[in-house]
Replication restart protein PriA
Amino acid sequence: MEERKTYFVDVILPVPINNAFTYRVPFEMNDFMKTGIRVVVPFGRSKLQTGIIVKVHEVVPEGYQSKYVEAVLDEFPIITGKQFKLWNWISEYYMAPLGDVMNAALPSNFKLGSETKVLIHPEYEGNSEILTDREYQVVEALEVQSELDLKEISDILGIKTIQPVIKALIEKRVIITQEDLKQKYAPKTQLFVELAKEYQSDEQLKALIDVLSEDKRKKKQLDAILTYMQMGGFKQGISKPILRSELVEKGASASSFNTLDKDGILKIKRMEISRLMERDEADSAFKELSPDQQRALDEIRESFVEKDVTLLHGVTGSGKTEVYVELIQEQLDKGKQVLFLLPEIALTTQLIQRLQKYFGDKIGVYHSRFNQNERVEIWNSLLHNDTTKFQIVLGARSAVFLPFRNLGLIIVDEEHESSFKQYDPSPRYNGRDTAIVLRAFHGAKVLLGSATPAMETYFNAEEGKYGLVKLDKRFGDIQMPEIFTANIKKEKMQKTMQSDFSGFLVEHMKKALENKEQIILFQNRRGYNPVWACEVCGWNPNCKNCDVSLTYHKNSNILKCHYCSYFTPPVGACPKCQSNRLKMIGFGTEKIEDELSIILPGVRVQRLDLDTTRQKNSYENILNDFDARKIDILVGTQMVTKGLDFDNVSLVGILDADMMLNRPDFRAFERSYQLMSQVAGRSGRKTKRGTVVIQTYDPDHWIIQHVINHDYMGFYKNELIERKNYFYPPFYKMINLTLKHRDPNKLEVMAMDLADRMKQAFGSRVLGPEFPVVKRIQNSYLKVIRLKVERDASNKKVKLLLQQKIDDFYSVSYNKSVRVIVDVDPS
Ligand SMILES: Nc1ncnc2c1ncn2[C@@H]1O[C@H](COP(=O)(O)OP(=O)(O)OP(=O)(O)O)[C@@H](O)[C@H]1O
Ligand SMILES: [Zn+2]
């Protein structure tokens, strides 16, 4: 008999440790070991973990007895070499453990661990013939106990390697992980009503109505049909599904639809809820590009001959999306894959629906909040290069982790958005910048799009590193909105303020409402009044866990911390001086909503902020209602600034520009310029020129002046000088180290120690330690050390050196209790 070899595998596990772990391969698994496949291994005390093999070898580990691989989950690799290269790059560049990267990269269904709990899938119909004996045993147990973790299942089956059973059950949609169930099983569909085929002509419909009108008992049904028609269900020979709930709202009886369905007159059908999509179903054909868009498209193609990355700097409403659409189609024709990155999936439904309209099933939407099965489906389809499906992936930053085979183009829309950067948990990577690295592995091209590009991006374009293409005009030659300032200081003196509204803004709101136009108001604060303060002694209520003031929420009548979950009822008197003169400073979205009902009685106001969009679909529903003109004024936080495209918005109000400008952050001016220009850009997009009112104490502020003049270049040039003078990006690269400890005194000592070590290596490029703006969060004190290095310094060297200093620091036992969070390229 042939001698059997002893193999070992190096496995990475989803734990925050940089090294791979070595396991011994049982002989019977020798033939199955490959890099890129998943194995189940023991980790820690009696725990099983799923890991990925990164190396198969025969080197016996020294100094310890390695444990055995317990089970093999895959026949073929689930990650590609290119993906692994990207993981390594992220791990090095962002100084994150490889296990963290793996954790971020894999859909959670790929990472069954000891904590995973499973349940019966809500759609499982009980067809047990598809089950093996072992699978059946699990299902039986779940019928009794409803929820099991992997250890329990292992006990029931009497075997250790249960993952393959679980995996098969998940794939057969018999069971579901608890995490999946929690997030994803809100119904995505609703009941719609549509005219049956036989009645879809004017004559037949008329005949039907005649028949129904003659029979008194059919009155309800007649009404239902008439309501359906009133709501545009049948127009010019074309029928269209209408939400049943809306028909009922309009007075049609719900039961009559069932009768009509039975009689074959109307059809009730369950469909995805997306009224926006249906809105222009009729024009799902590609739009013809304007000459300006065509020129931009040609220039982008030309630019791609020489440059791998090109910036499309197109003003708000210039029609960048249509240009993207052409570029995507071009790649599809070549059989290539396209990755379309968006800052936040949840906030970009409008854009997603537009693209889905064009590309239908070829688009997969990949997002951590989506159904895990769908994510795995997209993953596998890409992995196997199945071009009939998901040739285009729309996703937030985590979509860079997908197993692309044949990537031709990456589009990063709204590339300036800070939400492309992940902060928690590690890896703290930037999706845009990672996409540019991913590009290189595939020889693909990257198009960055924005009306207000990030400083770094524009700088790269100016330097010739990126190509640059501009769209200076709005589509349809609509002028950019006219922007005015409302001088709060003056109005306060003249007593023309109505609470938080300037007389100037109120006038404009009245005019817009008279014209039946809609309004968007932007205030970057939720809640009612951000701060309460005692007028006598200045006391204000703080969070007991964090170093911040509590925000008053009127609806729920509580004071709430926006950093942790702490809340408390409001106080009647100042606990410090017992005065009852507590006044409120500042204002949030909730208060604005309240005040509007007093200033403009009868006006229909809706808030769009974290508090009103917690529920599934509430964001979409609010936008749908606004689109259907059921809302006159939409009041929101920065959620209202992101890419919204409504025809009837003629006025945008920015309620407190100063708050944005005064933030203690080197990006405060950049962010202010971007936010104000973006929200201003929602006004007057389609038919006539829009208006914007910015309320401020400081109308002459240079940022506001550049916003008014739509002068991105002016802003950019000026800001660039500041950045250069103060050693900030794009001239310097930054790395922030945040130290966290419960004991402020120990923290002080430790932070000094780390800073000193860093100074030995980097000299005056090290700043701090200092307290951040919020110096205590959830009972931990924070200190920040900043490192600024010249942008041409070697990334690798800097990080190696820094890592070495951190390791040295941790080798001192006194320091072991502190957490050091490294944030490369903080946003
Ligand atoms: N070629 C075209 N034909 C018809 N309509 C167009 C065309 N190009 C753009 N539009 C319309 O103009 C509006 C603005 O386009 P789009 O939303 O793509 O602008 P944008 O550049 O992405 O703006 P923003 O940066 O503000 O999001 C949209 O309603 C779009 O449907
Ligand atoms: Zn708190």
